[in-house]
Design goal:
This protein has about 800 residues and is mainly beta. It is built from three helices and 73 strands. The chain has a 27-stranded mixed β-sheet that branches. The protein has a 14-stranded parallel β-sheet with strand order 1-2-5-23-25-28-31-34-37-40-43-46-49-52, with no helix packed on it. A hairpin with a 7-residue loop joins strand 59 and strand 60. The longest helix is centred in the first third of the chain and has 15 residues. The protein starts with a helix and ends with a strand.
């Protein structure tokens, strides 16, 4: 009892004797006494004064900066508060938040040549990371420019370990020594490397990371004065510490140019119990907040802008709280919390414009991300993470909660990532009790520039190698170019009650050689998988073995692709002979083959993907009825025969060769024109194997054998079926080919082939489907312009009401 009274009394005394110290950059005076500075009428002036007196602060003391004032410099925190009485740094008076800035305004310019101006002011550091012109971030100059061919990425022809690259493209006659080589070494790695020598098209460099380049990927050059040729591009000369900017024919006097001149604005190293609130920060050259082995740090109601690297950088911090902050324009990450950052609470923040320039981030596979956090017992909730060059929210650790966040626009500079992403590199040490719940993830873009790939690799939620023991519940994923959810080499995952809309594929589950972990014990139930376009698969299950039936339990889901539900699920596996087998199913075929989704259902709605007004050409396939022969057919890894059967008394019989995992036939169709629509009609009959499907496409006749339109898939059964397919050509070809592909050994019969150019109207899905979401904390009512039904066949006529962090897919009735 006495001990308890002592604690209460000590806390009371601490609060009673807590002191306020006032600072004003406009009316302050650093020569004033300590007692004077405790009065609003006689504040101190500068942050350097604050740093000099920080050691006199006690638990519960407050440092108050005057609103509307701007304070140049940094705060170095050298004293801890106590758990119940932190040292507070905040604001007083009224008006705009006080600004702590690392910017200097550059106003004295000397014209150099060719539109380049040099500022006469010498800056502090040997490297510069943030330049702002009229409140807009500009990147270093680069060669080639970002608006050049291939988005300014030059191809790597070859490389020598991690020491040099050689390009097939010609470099201008410039000595690039000491410039930076920005290399896209992998889809998820963009490194900055210092060029140490040059020999023709071979550039040797000092690597920024252990990653080797990949032949065929791209690079560009920056941090050299010869790259300046577009407005706002800049080069910082480290020898004389002066900035060069390209203004073209415009006068620098007409612009406000700011450069960061302070590396870190708030430094908390080995100190605890500090509260920062109601402040604005801008213009750090490196980190706005540098938190190192710091505990119980609170950052609330702050505005953080123009961070040269990270806005909040933490290493082995504990119990960090960041709430109600606006964090924008970070070159690297908004949050980069590494080591063991346990007990963090990051909630109700707006995080925008993170990692927008390919050559301005740090060398890390996790750069360009909104939130990157490692540690246990962390809560990430009610944040809006908008426009991240790579991942929106990346987390790793036990008892992690990612809940009620809106993640929008991500993976547009690097990809093979997700809006919400986690990975566990240690297959023998699985993380536990992780929750991803009620988030809304939209617009995963993908970034193929600087790669040799054509695909876009951005998924809404991405559970990567050895992810385990995660509940993914009540989330909504839409408009992500790879997948709504990508489960990659993960186990013991519960995926339930989620909504997937108009992603490249709604769900991908994959086991591959990238991990020793197995895909096992997963539960995928009560989800809505909705593909808006006929080109989008509803689900894909892929493995480098033959173990899809061991992935877990899949049932009670809703599968829908109203534009074409003939083939909606794809699989890929390895057969006993070691061949890769690709198969495609409708929902019933999937159920019958794998005994999954027994109670799952599909939409009763069917929509044609096109309407034919009239045909504008004759049949482009000669002898499409195969009346007497099959002379116009060429076969690859299959046998073709003419048979006296079918409605036209002639048909083409196609039989895969033994042990052939992929075969196809081609038929010439003549000219195909980009922007035109084509209608294909055909009759097909298969063997007894009812789960086969055939792919149909238009293709170039020669290298590089580009597809001229999106591939269509149709189920083959032992019953004769008439099909009609619409193609919208995207490429011109003088001698186009119609191609039928088969991905397993089978036999089928074709006849009555007809291909016409058509005056056709392609159905616009936007006229029929509506996706609405509510990313707010209160109920949202949305007005409707007609009669709609949802995926549960509930009817809505005038409006729909959505609970917080929910979504609805509506189908218009007409």
């Amino acid at each position: 009892m006495k001990f308890f009274l002592i604690i209460v009394f000590t806390s009371f005394v601490s609060n009673v004797f807590a002191r306020n110290y006032y600072f004003s950059s406009t009316s302050g005076d650093d020569t004033r006494s300590t007692s004077q500075a405790q009065k609003v009428s006689s504040p101190w002036k500068s942050l350097s004064k604050l740093n000099s007196i920080f050691n006199i602060l006690e638990s519960g003391d407050s440092v108050l900066l005057k609103r509307g004032d701007i304070f140049y410099g940094s705060i170095v925190i050298t004293k801890s508060g106590s758990a119940n009485s932190p040292i507070v740094i905040s604001s007083y008076s009224s008006g705009a938040l006080p600004i702590i800035t690392g910017f200097v305004t550059l106003s004295k310019w000397d014209k150099k040549e060719n539109g380049v101006f040099t500022n006469s002011q010498e800056l502090a550091d040997s490297a510069l990371n943030m330049v702002v012109i009229d409140k807009t971030v500009y990147a270093m100059g680069r060669y080639p420019n970002a608006n050049a061919t291939s988005a300014g990425w030059m191809p790597i022809l070859s490389h020598e370990r991690n020491n040099s690259i050689t390009t097939s493209a010609s470099l201008p006659p410039i000595d690039w020594t000491n410039a930076e080589l920005v290399v896209r070494k992998k889809r998820y790695v963009i490194d900055r490397n210092k060029i140490i020598s040059q020999e023709g098209s071979r550039l040797s460099y000092k690597s920024g990371t252990q990653y080797e380049p990949t032949n065929g990927l791209g690079f560009f050059i920056q941090n050299h004065i010869q790259t300046l040729d577009q407005f706002g591009e800049w080069y910082y000369d480290p020898a004389i510490k002066k900035l060069n900017v390209y203004f073209d024919k415009k006068s620098p006097a007409n612009f406000e140019v700011s450069a960061s001149n302070i590396n870190t604005l708030i430094s908390v190293r080995n100190q605890d119990n500090i509260s920062l609130q109601n402040l604005s920060f801008e213009g750090s050259n490196l980190k706005t907040f540098d938190l190192y082995y710091a505990k119980n740090i609170s950052i609330k109601n702050c505005h953080i802008n123009f961070s040269g690297v990270d806005a909040v950088d933490g290493f082995n911090t504990e119990n960090l709280v960041v709430e109600n902050c606006v964090i924008i324009n970070s070159n690297n990450n908004a949050f980069d919390l590494t080591g063991s950052c346990n007990g963090s609470q990051i909630r109700n923040n707006i995080i925008k414009n993170t990692g927008l320039n390919a050559g301005m981030a740090s060398n890390s596979p996790h750069s360009f991300s909104g939130i990157n956090i490692n540690g246990n017992n962390n809560i990430i909730e009610y944040n809006e993470v908008d426009s991240s060059g790579y991942i929106g929210i990346r987390f790793a650790g036990n008892s992690s909660v990612i809940k009620n966040n809106l993640v929008n626009y991500f993976c547009f500079l690097k990809d093979d990532g997700g809006g919400i992403y986690t990975v566990n590199g240690d297959a023998n040490n699985a993380k536990n009790d992780q929750l991803i719940q009620d988030n809304i993830v939209l617009n995963g873009i993908g970034a193929k520039d600087g790669t040799s790939e054509t695909s876009l690799q951005a998924s809404g939620i991405y559970l990567d190698d050895n992810s385990a023991n995660i509940k993914v519940m009540g989330n909504s994923m839409a408009y992500c170019n790879k997948a709504g959810l990508y489960l990659h080499n993960g186990h013991d995952i519960d995926i339930s009650g989620n909504t997937f809309y108009s992603n490249g594929t709604q769900l991908i589950v994959q086991k591959d050689a990238a991990s020793t972990g197995l895909v096992r014990n997963n539960s995928i139930k009560n989800n809505i998988f909705f593909s808006k376009k006929s080109s989008q698969f509803v689900a894909s299950f892929l493995t480098n073995e033959n173990d899809i039936n061991m992935f877990g339990k899949i049932d009670e889901n809703y599968y829908s692709r109203p534009m074409d539900d003939n083939v909606i699920i794809s699989t890929s596996y390895i057969d006993k002979a070691g061949g890769k087998i690709n198969r495609y199913f409708d929902l019933n075929g999937w159920k019958n083959r794998y005994n999954e989704d027994v109670s799952s259902r599909k939409s009763s709605l069917r929509l044609s993907s096109y309407k034919v007004n009239n045909l504008v050409s004759s049949n482009k396939i000669s002898n499409g009825n195969f009346i007497t022969d099959i002379s116009n057919v060429h076969a690859f890894k299959c046998k073709v025969e003419w048979q006296n059967s079918g409605a036209s008394k002639g048909s083409l019989r196609v039989t895969s060769l033994p042990n052939s995992s992929s075969s196809y036939i081609t038929i010439p169709v003549g000219e195909i024109h980009s922007g035109k629509n084509y209608i294909l009609k055909f009759n097909i009959t298969g063997s007894d194997d009812s789960d086969e499907s055939v792919g149909i496409l238009l293709r170039q006749n020669g290298s590089p054998y580009t597809n001229l339109a999106t591939t269509a898939y149709k189920i083959i059964s032992d019953k004769s079926q008439d099909y009609e397919v619409a193609f919208s050509a995207t490429t011109d070809e003088e001698n186009g080919l119609l191609v039928f592909t088969l991905n397993d050994a089978a036999t089928y019969w074709l006849n009555n082939l007809q291909l016409y150019e058509a005056n056709a109207v392609i159905t616009n899905p936007e006229d029929h489907f509506l996706f609405e979401y509510n990313a707010g904390r209160s109920v949202k009512t949305i007005s409707l312009n007609g009669k709609y039904v949802d995926t549960q066949n509930k009817t809505y006529t005038h409006n729909i009401t959505l609970e917080p962090f929910t979504s609805a897919i509506l189908i218009k009735q007409n």
